[in-house]
Amino acid sequence: MEKKLKTITFTVIENGIQTPIATRRGSYPNLMYLLKEELQLESFGECGGVGRCATCVVKTSGITGNSTLKERNEPATLSKLGFEEANIRLSCQIYITADLNDAEISILEV
Question: Any transmembrane segments, and where (predicted)?
């Protein structure tokens, strides 16, 4: 029997414009790659997803589960920029999972 993949849907806000996104788990390595490709963002995610450059900073609302946890280089990188809020994240450190369903992701200018 073939396993049906569930659609993951959320909203992205860039420069005040809301864009609904529908994707599936595993379609992208992480949220940064999805945002970069779907929204054609230039100068976004310049370090390639290792959590060092902070060119993929987003503000999240409605993310659940393990996707709320900051790991690896993320806390130190955000702290250097003065971001201490739990909902400010590096999109390269957020995986595409059901934790993103119904979330709102705002792209921040850094």
Answer: none
Pick the CATH number of 7-107 from 3.30.420.10, 2.102.10.10, 3.30.413.10, 3.10.20.30: 3.10.20.30
Q: What is the pTM of this model?
A: 0.90
Tokens of 37: 């490709």
Nearest CA-CA partner of 60 in 7, 16, 17, 102: 102
Q: Encode the chain (110 residues) as per-residue pLDDT tens digits.
A: 445 569 999 999 999 999 999 999 989 999 999 999 999 988 898 888 888 889 999 999 999 999 999 987 899 999 999 999 999 999 999 999 999 999 999 999 87
Q: Quick one: tokens of 9?
A: 């849907």
